[in-house]
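[audit] Reproducing an earlier prediction to check determinism. Same input, same settings, fresh worker. If the tokens differ from the archived copy the diff job will pick it up downstream; this log only records the rerun itself.
[audit] input (218 residues):
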Amino acid sequence: MNKKLLAVAAVAVIFAVLNLASRAAQSGPQRAPLQALVGSSACIQPQWPAEARRYEIEGVTTLRFAIGMDGKVLQPAVTQSSGWRILDDAALHSIAQCLFQPKLDAAREGTVFPIQVAWKLDGPPPARPLLVAGSCQTSERFAAFREADPRPSDKQGILLRFLVNQEGAPVRIVAEAGSQPQELTAQAVAYLQSCRFAHDPNSRAERTDTGFGRVLLR
């Protein structure tokens, strides 16, 4: 399979941080903007995890963080998930590496800064395999599989990502279980394994063997 290049849609984390943080932290003309308080090498560009690249998943991770008196990042946390834990963890790791100047006013005041990291594929959307109508087994617990639905797992459904083999069967399924019990998540994976997928023969987009969506609960 030809893999497309991947890139973080946002500029490097440092610039996103500074753009948001300087507006949030400035309270008057006497306060220096945070651009002057951190070097360009003080944060690292978010790195796509190899597994996320393989599954071609996208999303936006929203974070918050504070700055300690020593200039280190304190209490970084995800306030809104991308839907994919692997991307959220990578965003958390990158912001945790930032280092600001020590003894900032923002540190004394306990200012909390927001930041978003956008994870987006380069180029046009790939042609993912489509669910073959009526191929999923009948289930008393699950109503259907809704492909390309990126909403996080909840009481209505469980988010899964997967690859599709040459026979059209989903393999290497990964569940984003959220608060759903392990037994129910395993059953959702087994349900998806009964489904079959195929590419639209009329699509001219570059084909991929990756897919995602939600198994819907009854």
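[audit] rerun output stored. Observation attached for the diff report: The longest helix spans residues 13-25.
[audit] end
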